[in-house]
Amino acid sequence: MGFISLVALVCLSLVNPVYTQPLTDINSWTDAVITLSSDLTGAYHADKACIIRLENGNYWEPLQFDSRTIVLKGSEGANIAEYFRNEDLTAFESSDIQVGGVLYTYEMHEVKEDGTLLVGGKLENHGAISMQSANTVIVIAHTKEGGNPHYTNIGVEACISVLKHYRF
Description:
Beta-Lactamase; globular
């Protein structure tokens, strides 16, 4: 999804909150999260992303796995979804955040003004992880080592703000 397409999509969904075009190309959303994680110099801070279903932790749509896709292992998606459904921050705090076979140390959570929950973790020499839920999905993004998680959070939040306007 090109930048112009993303801008058009954001504007259309804000003008018409019941816009229900089927979203079949999840890789475009992965690319959107990464693209929106750029800073003023144009450097991308996120290098991988995925979207999973809040109900069961399965991928939102079938993916073509590539280097820009977070590949969840075993029950990671189900565990993340359960924690978000139950808003169980103690589970993140006590067992940390396992994504893609890497155990990130729980760093923070923030309840946004719209009621969505943003959760972040970090692991030295492995970057950071950011996750936020909306309606029926969870957007997960990885900040590359040396990147700034703040910009990744901006990319995640931007996609969440659009996805909240869709009916799934």
